[in-house]
Fold this sequence. Notes:
The complex is a heterodimer of chains A (1046) and B (242).
Chain A lengths: L4 H17 L10 E3 L2 E2 L15 E6 L8 E7 L2 E7 L11 H10 L9 E2 L2 E2 L2 H17 L3 E6 L5 H10 L3 E3 L6 H11 L6 E2 L6 E5 L12 H9 L9 E5 L12 E3 L6 H16 L2 H7 L4 H8 L3 H13 L2 E6 L5 H14 L6 E2 L10 H12 L3 E7 L3 H4 L6 H6 L3 E4 L13 E2 L10 E3 L5 E5 L12 H11 L16 H12 L3 H4 L2 H11 L1 E3 L27 E5 L13 H5 L13 E3 L1 H6 L6 H6 L1 E9 L2 E9 L7 E5 L37 E2 L1 E10 L19 E3 H7 L18 H6 L17 E6 L8 H9 L6 H6 L8 E8 L5 E8 L8 H5 L5 E3 L5 E3 L9 H5 L6 E2 L4 E2 L20 E2 L5 H12 L18 H5 L5 E5 L6 H5 L5 E2 L11 E4 L1 E3 L17 H5 L23 H13 L1
Parallel strand pairs in A: 8-9, 8-16, 11-12, 11-14, 12-13, 16-17, 17-18, 22-26, 23-25, 29-41, 30-40
Antiparallel strand pairs in A: 3-4, 4-5, 6-7, 6-18, 10-15, 19-20, 20-21, 22-27, 24-25, 24-28, 30-38, 31-32, 33-34, 35-37, 39-40
Helix pairs in contact in A: 2-24, 3-15, 4-15, 5-11, 7-8, 7-9, 7-10, 7-11, 8-11, 9-10
Chain B lengths: L6 H15 L15 E2 L19 E3 L17 H7 L4 H4 L14 H8 L7 H12 L5 E2 L12 H7 L3 H5 L8 E7 L5 E7 L11 H10 L1 H7 L3 H9 L1 H4 L2
Antiparallel strand pairs in B: 4-5
Amino acid sequence: MNLHRRDFLKALGLSSGTSAIGACGIDANRYMTPVENVLPYVVKPDQVTPGTPTFFATSVLRGPHAHAATARHRDGRVINVGHNPMAPGRPSVSTSELMELQKHYSPDRLQAPQADGAATTWEAGLSTLATAVREARAAGKQVAYLGAYRSGALVELIDQVTEGHAVYWEPTGYEAEVAAAEALFGRRTLPFYDLGDADYILSFGAPFLGSWGDAAIEDRYALARDPNHGHGIVRFALVAPFRDQTGVNSDDWLACAPGSEVLVARALAARIASDKGVALVGQLAGGVTLEAAAEASGLSVEDLEGLVAHLTHGQAVVLPGGASGDADLAAATYLLNLALGAAPGRFHLGGYAGPVSGWSELSALLADCKAGKVGVLIVDEANPVYALPDAAGAAEALKAVGLVVGVSSHTDETTALASLLLPTSDAFEDWGDEQPVAGLRLLRQPAASPLYDTRSLGDVLLATARAAGLQAPEGSLGFAAPTWREYLAAVWARDLHQPAVDGAFGDFWEKSVIQGFWQGDAGDVTPALVAESYAWADAAPVAGDLVLLTHAHPLRKDGRYANQPWAQEVGDALTGMTWDSWLEVSHETAEALGLAPTGKQQRSGEFPKVSVTTDGGTVELPLRTRRGIKAGIAVLALGNGHVAAGRYADGYGVNAAKLFALAAGSLGAFAWRGQSAKVGDTGTLVKVATTYSNYDDTDQGRQFGMLVDAGRLAEHGDAPAAHAGELTGIHHLELDSRLAERDVEGFYTTPDHSTYRFGMTVDTNACTGCGACLVACYAENNLPVVGKGKLAEGREMAWIRLDRFWETAPDGTEQMAFVPMMCQHCGHAGCENVCPVLATYHNIDGLNAMVYNRCVGTRYCSNACPFSVRRFNYHTYHWPEPFNLQLNPDVSVRTVGVMEKCTFCVQRIRQVKSAAKDGGNFTATVPDEAWRQVPACAEACPTQAMTFGNLNDPEGACSQSRKSGRTYEPLADIRPLSAVNYLARATFHGDPTAHHGGGHGGGHEAAGEHAATHEGGSHEAPAHEGEAHEAEGHEMKDHHEAGSAH
Amino acid sequence: MRRTTTTPWTALGLLVAVTGAAGCPDASVYPGDDVFQREPHSLFPEWPAAFDPAAKDWQLGSGMVDGRGLEQPIAFPHYTHVTLNGMQCEYCHQAARKSLHAGVPQGQTCMNCHTYVKKDSPEVQKVVAYFEKGEPVPWRKVHDLPDFVHFEHKRHVQAGVDCTECHGQMGLQGQPETWSEKDEHGKVVTKTGVRHPVVRETTLQMGWCLDCHASHPSVDENYGDKANLRRAELKDCWTCHK
Lengths: 1046, 242
C-alpha cells in the first residue's frame, strides 16, 4: 500500500481523536470543519463589490490638521485610511488619521443616548435638550458650546444655535499663534510656513514634524531636506531647552533657558531689522540687544551672531515655540520672519482661519458657568476637566450648568460629568467639510454606515434648533434643512458653487463628493503689519533649580488618542517606552540628583521611580535619562494619566497637566510655561515596557545609523556611488566598496528574480521619527496589541522597529538618526537556511516569504536573523469587539506558535499585480511608478522617506534612489544582499557658518555640553572642533567600539 | 487563521495535552492588564471550544467529498436555472470576473424574475419573504476555503478557467428527487423535491489546486513563452497563502 505522509498523519490524527471525541457526537472518522454563512446584500449598493475595496474621498481629521484622505471600504466596513491622490496636500497619512480609524472601532464608543447614566432614546434625549434650550433662552441664560477645533459649515451652525457662545479650545492648540497674528496683522489666522523653498529653518520648539501645523508641512520640510531638490539641504536650527521628536531632527541645537526664547527671537528680529533697515519691525521688536538675550538665555553672543549670519544669508524661515511658547514668542517669530523678508513667499497668512478660542474665552465661559449664566453647555470632544490644571475649576464649573450635553463619540473626564450623552457619528460615518488652509475646502462623506445608534452633530443641532423654536439670523440659511447633509450642500451652494463655471449644482456637488475637495482663490494672504506698537510682557526665564516642561506626545497628542491601543503600544520615538508616563532628564541632571541609573538597571529595563513635586501637586513616575535635554530641565509629556477615558487609557501614566500652574500667558493665551519642580527618589525601581532596550541609544559602532556631512553634500550634490569617496562623513561611507562587491559569488548562490525583485530604500535623512509607518503597519497587517505586561516581557509584535541612534560628531554635537528597521528581505537570508519545515523561503519576487501554516514554531529563524526583526506569537490574541471589524481580510490573523514578520505588504503587491492583469494583458510587468507607495509604511510616511519598487527596473525610483552616495546596507559585511537599503542622514556639523560664507562659529557650545553625558561620559567629545572634516571615520568607529566595550 | 483546518493535528495534540505536556505557566508582571484578550497559554489553545459540536454547525472538511452538501434555507435548484432555463453563471454571480468573491446574488437579483415567475412556489415565497423583511438569505457555505487562503475568482475566470473545473457540474445539481426519510415521529415518509441543493464535487485541497496550477492549458494560452515563469509563480506559496 502506498501511503503518503499527509495521509498517514491524517489517519493517525483521526484515529487518535476518535477515542477522545467519538462520544461527543461528531463523526470522528471524517475531518469536519465549521459551516459558515454567506450573507448576500438584499439590495447591493452600486459602489460596493464584495471582495473589492472601495475608496471614499473624505477628511478624517478636523480643523487645522484636516487632510484630504481616502477611507478604504471593504465589505461594509472601513479597514484603512490612505491619502487622496486627486487632492492637494501631502501624499501620505498621519498617525492621527490612523488613530481616528482605531477610535472608530473602539469598544469604548458610546453606543446609544444616555440620560443620567441610563439608556434612553434619541427622541427623549433630543426632547430633553430642546426643552432645556428653550428654557435657557426664556430665562436669559446662555446656550454655550465647548469643542475642539472645528471648521467649515458646522461652525456656522454652531454659532447660530449658540448665538456666538461657542468656544473652540485645545490644550496644545494654536491660540498663541492666532493671538499674535491678530495683534500684529489684525487677522485671527494661523500663518502658513512654506518650508519647501527654505534653506534655513530656525525653530523655537514648534513640533512641526508630527504634531503641529497644516497637514503638508512635513512634506514641504522633506522637500527642503532632499539633497536633490536643487539647492542643498535645509539646515534646521533649534533654540529650545530640550529636543523633542521634532527637535532631534535639528542640525544645530542651542539650549536656551526655558522662557528666554522670546528674548532671543526679539533680539534677532531687532538686530536683523536694523541691519536691513526694516524700521517698523525693529520698532515693534523693541530694543532687545543680542547681549541681553544671551545673558537671559545662557547662550553666547557668538551663538546668536552665528544665527544672525545664517538667517540673513539665504532663504530662512522662523517657526514659533512649542507647548510652552506664548503669544509673545509667536509675535517675535513673526517679526523675525518679516525682518528676514520671508513674507509673503515663505511666511504668509494663508493658514487655518477657523475659530481658535483663547484661554481668555475659555476662562470666561467657565466663569459664566460658575455664575449660573449658562443654561445648556454642549461639549464636543473638548476635555477641559482632564486637560486643565485643577485650579481652573472646570469640573465645578460644569456642575453649575443647568444641562451639560456630551455630543462626542466617546466619554472622557468631561463628558463623565454630562447628564445627557448624545453619541455622534464620527468622521467615517458623517458628512462635513473642513477648511485647513486658505483656498481649500475638504468635503467629508460617510465611508460606512454608523456602527451604532449615533447621529450627526449637525442633525442634532438642527433638530434642537427647530424643536426649541430658535430664530436664525436674517439672511442665514436658517434651521429648515431637514438633514445635516442638505444643510452642508446649501452652504456649498451658497459659498463655493459658481454656476457660470461649475454648471448645475447637482453636478458640482457630485464632483466635489467624488474628489473630496474644492480649491479656489486663497485671497490676500500678505502679512501686513497693522500694529504700531506691541506690549511685550515681562519675559523672565523660569526660576528654579529644576524646571519641568511639557509637550504634546507625538502619538497620544494632548491625550485625545490615549485610549487607542496603538498610541500606547507603539514605542515613544526617543525612548521606546510604552503604556506609561516617564520623566526625562539629561544624564548629568540625573547624576546631580543622585538618580543616575546603573548599567545593570539599564540592561534590565528598570528605572528609578521618582516623585515630582510642583505647586500643582506630586506624582510618582519612572525617570529616564536621554540626550537632548538641557541641564536642569525635566520633561514630561502630556496625554496620559486618564481616569475616565476608557479601558486603554485609564490608569496608565500620570497626567502632566495637573502639575502646571494656571497662568494665562501674554495676550491671554494659555501656555504650558515651565514649572519649578522638585524631584525626589522613592527608593524603588520600576520596570517599564520598552520596545527597544538598547538603553544608550547608540548603534555601538555597528553602522546601523550613518551620518554624512550635509555641507559637503551641498557642494558635491547627492553624488552617485561612484563619487561617494568624496563624501566625508562622521563615519566614512566605506560600505560603497562592499556594495560594489555584491555581485561576487559567495557561499550561497545569488537568487534569480526574472520579473520582480522588490526592494525598498529608506532615506534616514527624511525620517523624522513620527511613527506613522509603525501605526500603519499595525492597521494593515492585523498586528495584535499585547499590552504593557507582555510588552515588558519582550512579546512585542510590531513588524517595524524604529531604531534611534545618537551619533556624536567630531565637533561634539549630537545628532539623531532614526532607522526604521523591518525585514530586510535578504537575498542570502539567515532565517531561510535554518527553517526545518521550509516555512520561510525566498520567493520568486525576491520576498522573504513566511507561510504561517507551515510554521511549527522552532524560532530558529528568529535566532538566525541578524536584524532581529522576526516576531513570535507567544499567544493567540483576540481582537475585542468591534476592533475585529478593522481586521484586514487579505491578511491572516496569526495564532500561537507561529513566527511572523514584515511581508512588504504582500497582499497589496498581489492586488497591484492582479489589477494590472484585469485589462487582459497577462504578461506585462507592472511599471515602477505603480509600486512606489505600495507597502502600508511607505504609503503612510509623511516625508516619503520610504521608496518601494522593483529593483529589476534600473530606471525605477527605488533603483535610482540607491545610486546616491549616501546608500548603505546595514551589516553589509555579512553580505545579506538586503532588499532594503538606507540612505545616510545628512547633518551639518563642523563650523556652522562655513557653508554660508561668513559669520562666526558657534551654535554648538550648548550642545557640546551634553556630549559627555551619555554612558557616564565614556564618549568624550573629541577636541578638534576646527578639524571636523579631517576626522577619519575609522577613528570614530574605533572610538565607538571602545565606548561600547565600556 | 482559523484553527479548524488543523483539526487532525489538534486531535493528535489532545493526547499530548492530556498526558501533561500543556503549556508553561502564564505569569505576567502586570497581572490583569491584558489589552487584547489572550487565550490561556497552551499548545492547543482553542480546545475544546472549536470541537464543541453543540457550539458550531459542522460540515465535511476539504479533501473529502460525500455528495450530500448542506441543507440550505431555500432548496435552490441550479438545475432549473442553468440547465432548464439556460441562465449564465454570471447573471447571478456577478462579480466572478471582477472581484475576489464571485458573489452570491443580492435579493434584488432574485426578485428581478421572481416578481413575475413562479410566484406560487413555496420556495420562491421564502425568497420573497426574506426580501420583504429586508433580510439576507442565510445561505450556508459549501465551497469554503480556509481563511488563510487568498483566492481570486477574477484571476481564474479571466484566465479562462471554466466555473465547472472547480465547482463541478452545478447545472446538474438540485434536480428533483424522491427519497424516504424518518419524520419527527420516527415514521418513514417519502419526499419529493430538491434534496441536495448545492454539493461540493471537488476536494478543494492544496494538492488539487497545485495539480491544476502546474498543468492547466490556460497558462500556455495566456503567457506564451513566459508560461514556465508563470507556472513557477503559481507554485509559490505566497500566491495563495496569505
